[in-house]
Write a structure and sequence with these properties.
Layout (H helix, E strand, L loop, with lengths): L11 H13 L4 H7 L3 H4 L1 E4 L2 E4 L7 H13 L2 H10 L25 E2 L2 E2 L1 H20 L12 E5 L6 H9 L8 E5 L4 H8 L7 E6 L6 H15 L7 H4 E5 L2 H7 L6 E3 L16 H7 L1 H20 L6 H15 L4 E7 L6 H13 L17 E3 L11 H6 L6 E8 L5 H20 L3 H8 L6 H11 L7 E8 L2 H21 L11 H13 L10 H14 L1
Parallel strand pairs: 5-6, 5-7, 7-8, 8-9, 10-11, 10-12, 12-13
Antiparallel strand pairs: 1-2, 2-13, 3-4
Length: 548
């Protein structure tokens, strides 16, 4: 069944929200808290090891009522049923969207083209487990009989960002293997990694869903050439494995069929870390931890699938985001993880969110006349506090932010953890309340300033507050809780795509640049009568001169 295609602006709920927005747009959250002592409790969801507090948002129970009505009116329930059961909801590519099947239990039955995909998923999982155990235990050897010490993941986009982010986030759980990620076609990337490698003990994992991606094939070729400077052709078989849907292309590249981990067209690149694309994750943290990551994601799938919308974390977060995006006209959202392990989390989400929902044509093929996908950015706290928080606190832009924190530390240093958590809590409080003129003046009392000096400084020291945040407080960073967190954002993406009536699972917008790059690449060594605008032509000729 196709996804329902309902223009959200034609719903009753949208009209109610529009009117309601005019009524509450200037209300300060401080007043909402003052008038309802139970606000924090009624606007939070406690589920397993997740405590999601969304009370520090510019909304009332009436707002939530209309937002939930919007979810009903766009037929979110029907869309969810299609998402989980393998409907072709990626209509422009004619594909199912089944990353949730990758983490479903063995007993599940998910039919694609008349066939249950679960046995095949579990067969590949078994291969991942066996291979991981053989590499980690040192049983599998390189061409000179030494065990592997290093793993190089060669991929880009979804074949890089997911595995790289998870490996970074689960660093605490890592084994002795050193992992490297090569993605950029910039030769500096691969060459810097090569400096750290020993060909005798390095395993290469070439990851590409299509196996046609220029960057990945170039990097894989360069690494293989370097490898062959030290080893002979037969050694490639014991040092190179691949993950792809395109078995023929992988074989053409020279990797043995036995060394290919398959994936499927019904897994989108940016949602693929749960498949064999996550092989590097499994190698880095061990199969058991990889499995826990998947189990955590599955628990979030169940929560999303079975919980009423009002208490459904991904649904509520998606609706709040729509509220800011479409009514307050907020352009971006920040994601701030209070954990150094989450350094790559926002970068990862950028692909997930912006490649999925950066669309301007609706599911009927018509241009939308409302805003869709949000810009996503962020860095871990507390570092980001000392970098860009100034703008969030006192700038002119409204930037709703997700604050993600872990109550228990992994390192066990209470002093550091208390300081980290005090910042985590203080920032959302500061963003909520701000600082009034009266408070600033009171603070100034102890300072030796004249009244004129005080009045001069006053406007700069006032914080308006009323800056919205969600707090996603998780008990501890584990493979399972990370799996839940990632799946939470995946479902948020889905819900927003349904509301905005767009296709979230294609990415036609990345094609044009690729096509032109291929054309220009040929022109570097070709004749000079190219068809380009004058700017591109000048730049192209400038480069041609420089490279001679
Ligand atoms: O895995 P691959 O086929 O090499 O694709 C890698 C990436 O490249 C494309 O340009 C897409 O925009 C991404 O969604 C994809 O993850």
């Amino acid at each position: 069944m196709a996804l329902p295609a309902i223009n959200p602006t034609t719903t009753q709920a949208w009209k109610l929200l529009k009117k309601h927005f005019e009524d509450i747009k200037n209300i300060h959250m401080k007043d909402l808290f003052a008038s309802d002592s139970n606000r924090a409790n009624t606007n939070s969801i406690i589920w397993e090891d997740f405590y999601v507090d969304y009370s520090k948002n510019r909304l009332t129970s009436e707002t939530m009522e209309y937002l939930l009505q919007l979810a009903e009116e766009v037929k979110l329930k029907d869309a969810m049923a299609g998402y989980f059961s393998g409907d072709v909801i990626n209509e422009t590519e004619g594909r199912e969207v089944l990353h949730t099947a990758l983490r479903a239990p063995k007993s599940a039955k998910i039919i694609v083209d008349g066939e249950d995909v679960m046995p095949e998923i579990y067969r590949v999982k078994q291969d991942i487990e066996t291979f991981t155990n053989n590499v980690v235990s040192g049983e599998l050897k390189g061409y000179t009989g030494k065990s592997f010490t290093d793993v190089v993941n060669i991929g880009i986009g979804g074949s890089d960002l997911g595995p790289a982010m998870v490996v970074e986030s689960l660093q605490y759980y890592k084994n002795h293997l050193t992992t490297h990620f090569v993605s950029n076609v910039d030769g500096d990337h691969v060459n810097e990694v090569i400096k750290e490698l020993d060909p005798e003990t390095t395993l290469f994992v070439v990851v590409s869903k299509t196996f046609t991606t220029q960057e990945t094939l170039s990097n894989a070729n360069t690494l293989r050439t370097w490898f062959l400077e030290h080893a002979n052709q037969e050694a490639v078989a014991s040092h190179f494995v691949a993950v792809s849907t395109n078995i023929e292309k992988v074989k053409e590249f020279g990797i043995n069929e036995a060394n290919i981990f398959p994936m499927w067209n019904w897994v989108g690149g940016r949602f693929s870390l749960w498949s064999a694309v996550g092989l590097t994750i499994s190698l880095a943290v061990g199969y058991k931890n990889f499995e826990s990551l998947l189990e955590g994601a599955h628990q979030m799938d169940e929560h999303f699938k079975t919980t009423d919308f009002k208490n459904n974390i991904p649904v509520v977060l998606a609706l709040i985001s729509v509220w800011y995006n479409n009514f307050f006209k907020a352009e971006s959202e920040a994601v701030i993880g209070y954990s150094q392990y989450l350094t790559q989390f926002a970068t990862y989400l950028q692909q997930g969110i912006m490649e999925s929902n950066g669309k301007s044509v609706d599911r009927n093929g018509d241009k939308v006349d409302y805003q869709t996908g949000t810009l996503i950015w962020g860095e871990p706290g507390t570092n980001s506090q000392h970098a860009f928080f100034q703008l969030i606190h006192q700038g002119t832009k409204l930037i709703p932010a997700d604050f993600i924190g872990f109550a228990e530390s992994l390192h066990g240093n209470k002093d550091h953890q208390d300081k980290l958590m005090s910042n985590f809590l203080a920032q959302t409080e500061a963003l909520l309340n701000g600082k009034t003129k009266a408070q600033v003046l009171q603070e100034m009392e102890s300072q030796k300033l004249s009244d004129v000096e005080k009045q001069k400084l006053l406007p700069f020291k006032v914080f308006e507050g009323n800056k919205p945040t969600n707090t996603i407080f998780i008990k501890k960073l584990t493979p399972a809780s990370l799996g839940k967190l990632i799946a939470m954002y995946e479902h948020k993406i889905f819900v927003q795509g349904v509301i905005w009536n767009i296709f979230s699972y294609d990415q036609w917008g990345v094609e044009l640049g690729k096509q032109l790059a291929n054309k220009i690449l040929k022109e570097f060594d070709g004749a000079e009568n190219y068809e380009h605008d004058s700017s591109t032509l000048n730049l192209l000729n400038y480069y041609k001169k420089q490279r001679q």
